[in-house]
Design goal:
With 461 residues, the protein is an alpha/beta fold. The chain has 15 helices and 19 strands. Strand 1, helix 1 (12-26) and strand 2 form a beta-alpha-beta unit. Helix 9 (212-220) packs parallel to helix 10, helix 10 runs parallel beside helix 12 and helix 13 (309-322) packs parallel to helix 15 (352-375). Its cofactor is [4Fe-4S] cluster. Belongs to the methylthiotransferase family. MiaB subfamily.
Length: 461
């Protein structure tokens, strides 16, 4: 058996892409290995959202060069950096064998065969026309034994925010037909999965024959599925219809990742984010009214070109006002071909040490707020979907609440069960407790169910 190792950087889209790569490799008689030193094939699935991610990729390539030298391993780079750099990566890294973009995962077996048999160095980074694009699909049998899985519903982004490289690395928005999504979800449910996460660069703008709100509602109705999640969203697509879906369907998990990026309207305009802070807060208030207790998380960029100390304080005030459950915050880094990179000198560069100092202040504030949320759970009984053993202590179980809070607990319920856990301790990042009741056991490959979806959408939809 040939062995492979995939090193994944970046977002959940990349994680999902790595899963689809694994399925393609299994059909070529490759088996995974947790140790790159034992691999015959190493793939780095890369992210280019931030410069640091690219630096990590190049550092990892340097480490894996020794494996190539000692074992003759094939070395490839996929993902967004591959799409961005194309054949320049082969020139920059002379021991690299192949480069392929996100649209070309289906060609991975062909690429590897060309490397092995023709001794070529291969580049496959052409975007696939939207009419011909085939979405990567989770293989139900490969997912058997899992509890949760990603399901791709769209790819690409049309917003062209001035800081973001996604339109250049993932292409324009393409939505997957909703019957295909629902059939995939049903296949996953038949092998015992209890939760699916619908993913895309901007899922709220989904146009696969029905609205995204309708897609969520239909997904929640698939027999066997108990929780539906999604990521990621743009505030201008947070429609009243989507908010209403949270109110009427409890299987849609009460967690919403809604990137605000900044607390200054001036900076938001420079970022090409077509909303104001006030508009963001109005929609957020509607969401919280429709689903009390919903956990809201966000993304924030610190030190965008031209950001003043006063504007950074606006971001701090927004964080305090909204009280995000958590946030992913980063210092601004220029990305190739983006509007901000082209105009950053005109707008005014924020010194690196200033950006870092601001980020540390923001993250300190968020840790305090996150800690307040988790401490408020101590003494409560919460519902947890069991996902398996804890990564930190093999004697404990691990799962998440509907709000996506991580829980490590004493218990014996198998993966796929829903249990009640009494929370005894908390840190800003996780809850700890003990199992006190089993609410629902795992499903074991229920008999096939007929999933009926219309082939044509009524005009009013």
């Amino acid at each position: 058996m040939k062995r492979y190792f995939i090193h994944t950087f970046g977002c959940q889209m990349n994680v999902n892409d790595s899963l689809r790569m694994s399925e393609a490799l299994s059909k070529m008689s490759y088996v995974p290995t947790p140790e790159p030193e034992n691999a015959d094939l190493i793939i780095l699935n890369t992210c280019s959202i931030r410069e640091k991610a690219e630096d990590k990729m190049l550092s990892a390539l340097g480490r894996y060069r020794a494996v190539k030298a000692s074992r003759g391993a094939i070395l490839g780079v996929g993902g967004c950096v591959a799409q961005q750099e194309k054949d320049k990566l082969l020139k920059k890294v002379p021991y690299l064998d192949f480069v392929f973009g996100p649209d070309n995962i289906a060609k991975l077996p062909e690429v590897i065969t060309r490397v092995q048999e023709a001794r070529e160095r291969v580049v496959e980074t052409a975007f696939v026309d939207s009419e011909e694009y085939v979405f990567p699909r989770a293989d139900a049998e490969t997912s058997r034994g899992k509890v949760t899985e990603f399901v791709t519903v769209m790819k690409g982004c049309d917003n062209v925010c001035s800081f973001c490289v996604v339109p250049h690395t993932r292409g324009r928005e393409v939505s997957r037909a909703f019957p295909d999504v629902l059939v995939e979800v049903a296949d996953l449910a038949r092998v015992g999965l209890r939760e699916v996460t619908l993913i895309g660069q901007n899922v709220n703008s989904y146009m696969g024959g029905i609205s995204f709100a309708q897609l969520l509602l239909r997904t929640a109705e698939v027999p066997g599925i108990e929780r539906v999640r999604f990521t990621t969203s743009h505030p201008h697509d947070l429609s009243d219809e989507l908010i209403e879906a949270f109110r009427v369907q409890p299987k849609i998990a009460p967690h919403f990742h809604l990137p605000v990026q900044c607390g200054s309207d001036r900076i938001l305009k420079m970022m090409r984010r077509d909303y104001t802070v006030e508009q963001y807060l109005v929609q957020l208030a509607k969401l919280r009214a429709a689903r009390p207790g919903i956990a809201v998380t966000t993304d924030i960029i610190v030190g965008f070109p031209g950001e003043t100390e006063e504007e950074f304080e606006m971001t701090m005030q927004l964080t305090e006002q909204v009280k995000y459950e958590n946030q992913f915050s980063f210092v601004y880094s220029p990305r190739p071909k983006t509007g901000a990179a082209l105009r950053e000198k005109e707008w005014g560069l924020v010194p690196h040490e200033v950006k870092v100092a601001r980020l540390e202040r923001l993250q300190k504030l968020q840790r305090r707020i996150s800690g307040e949320y988790t401490q408020s759970q101590v003494g409560l009984d919460v519902e947890v979907m069991v996902e398996g053993r804890s990564r930190y202590d093999a004697t404990k179980r691990f799962g998440r609440t509907p709000e996506n809070r991580t829980v490590n607990f004493d218990g014996d319920a198998p993966a796929g069960s829903f249990v009640t856990v009494h929370i005894e301790r908390a840190t800003p990042n996780q809850l700890q407790g003990k199992q006190v009741a089993v609410l629902q056991g795992p499903t074991v490959a229920p008999p096939p169910v007929e999933l009926t979806v219309p082939l044509h959408v009524p005009a009013e939809a």
